């Protein structure tokens, strides 16, 4: 646990108790001063939570419980202001927590790995019940798992972004690879993990190419799934950049290529409970070709809609890209 965050939480708790004391003794000056300081500390706490990349769903759940506890405490101590405000905060937080945990969660696209379909600055709605409902802030399923399908644009936490994940979680089939292949993968995975890992991981959005049991082979931009080659239709080529329509299981989407990985070759047999994910921007995507499979345990949801585009703070947000994600 972060020492600074613990100190801030203890300070906020002391401030809360002092506010109750000053309210009961009707010392309005000290109560207002304490309230102002608590507000400032809460802003710092939110900033610290953002820096630490803590799960926002878990934070919302804890805040909802605290609001309920304050509501009860206000009723016991007959502090009408505490009771009324806590009650209103409780219902607001409960609604937000339920929507975000069980319906849809907003997610901003941070990179160009899914160009052309998803652009940097796109805000997407992630369906949190598409693969089964989880308890807020955890990976614990409270309903049956609904397995991802090929061509889904899934949001998940890849293994190399988790500091406690082992290479075997990314490639359970590591033992069947040749010595050279195993060593290449291990070196790449461990370097990525050292550079990118956090305690709670980082959410990625990619297209599911392979599901458990699939044999997937990639040769340059051509992909075979269980021996069947994916259909590629060249749409345009401008300044070395190609736009290609790709078809997976009778569903089409567009991919982008620059000719940089024309000779790359990969082959996988996807293990049970694991999925193979590749970005649509085939020459600019950190995906399963580098870090292996992602686990169904780390699924966040399915990206379904672009609802807003805001490329930078210097630009105005726009709804011109609102569309269903294919």
Short key terms for the protein model shown above:
single chain; 326 residues; alpha+beta; Umud Fragment, subunit A; eight-stranded antiparallel β-sheet; four-stranded antiparallel β-sheet; 7 helices; 15 strands; 36% helix
Which SSEs are present, and which pair or pack?
Elements: H1 3-24, H2 28-52, H3 56-76, H4 80-102, E1 104-108, E2 122-127, E3 153-156, H5 167-170, H6 179-196, E4 204-210, E5 215-219, E6 222-225, E7 228-229, E8 231-238, E9 241-248, E10 251-257, E11 265-269, E12 274-278, H7 288-291, E13 294-295, E14 299-309, E15 323-324
Antiparallel strand pairs: 1-2, 2-14, 3-4, 3-14, 4-12, 5-6, 5-11, 6-7, 8-9, 9-10, 12-13, 14-15
Helix pairs in contact: 1-2, 3-4
Could you give a short description of this structure?
Helix content is 36%, strand content 25%. It is of the alpha+beta class.
Q: What do you see in this structure?
A:
The protein is of the alpha+beta class. The chain folds into 2 domains: about 5-100, no CATH class; about 105-325, Umud Fragment, subunit A, CATH 2.10.109. The chain is about 35% helix and about 25% strand. It contains 7 helices and 15 strands. The chain has helices spanning about 5-25, 30-50, 55-75, 80-100, 165-170, 180-195, 290, and strands at about 105-110, 120-125, 155, 205-210, 215-220, 220-225, 230, 230-240, 240-250, 250-255, 265-270, 275-280, 295, 300-310, 325. The strands form 3 sheets. Strands 1, 2, 3, 4, 12, 13, 14 and 15 form an 8-stranded antiparallel β-sheet that branches. Strand 8 and strand 9 form a beta hairpin. Helix 3 (about 55-75) runs antiparallel to helix 4 (about 80-100). It is elongated, with a radius of gyration of 24 Å. The protein starts with a helix and ends with a strand. The model has no long low-confidence stretch (mean pLDDT about 90).
């Amino acid at each position: 646990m972060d020492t600074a965050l613990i100190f801030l939480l203890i300070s906020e708790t002391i401030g809360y108790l002092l506010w109750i004391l000053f309210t009961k003794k009707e010392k309005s000056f000290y109560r207002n001063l304490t309230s102002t300081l608590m507000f400032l500390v809460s802003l710092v706490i939110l900033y610290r939570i953002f820096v630490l990349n803590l799960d926002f769903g878990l934070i919302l759940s804890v805040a909802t419980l605290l609001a309920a506890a304050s509501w009860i405490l206000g009723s016991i101590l007959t502090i009408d202001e505490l009771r009324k405000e806590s009650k209103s905060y409780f219902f607001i937080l409960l609604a937000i927590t339920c929507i975000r945990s069980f319906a849809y969660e907003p997610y901003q696209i941070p990179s160009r790995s899914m160009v052309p379909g998803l652009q940097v600055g796109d805000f997407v709605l992630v369906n949190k019940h598409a693969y089964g409902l989880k308890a807020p802030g955890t990976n614990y399923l409270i309903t049956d798992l609904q397995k991802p399908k090929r061509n889904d644009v899934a949001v998940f936490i890849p293994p190399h972004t988790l500091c406690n994940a082992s290479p075997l979680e990314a490639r359970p089939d590591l033992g069947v690879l040749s010595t050279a292949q195993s060593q290449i993968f291990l070196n790449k995975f461990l370097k990525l993990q050292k550079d990118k890992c956090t305690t709670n991981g980082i959410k990625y959005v990619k297209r599911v190419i392979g599901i458990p049991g699939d044999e997937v082979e990639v040769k340059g931009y051509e992909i075979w799934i269980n021996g069947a080659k994916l259909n590629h239709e060249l749409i345009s080529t401008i300044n070395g950049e190609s736009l290609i329509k790709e078809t997976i299981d009778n569903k089409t989407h567009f991919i982008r290529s620059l000719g940089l990985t024309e000779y790359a070759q990969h082959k996988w047999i996807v293990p049970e409970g694991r999925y193979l994910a590749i970005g649509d921007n085939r020459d600019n995507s950190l995906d399963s070709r580098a870090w292996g499979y992602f686990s169904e345990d780390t699924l966040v949801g399915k990206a379904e809609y672009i609802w807003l585009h805001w490329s930078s703070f210097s630009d105005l947000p726009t709804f011109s890209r609102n569309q269903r994600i294919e």
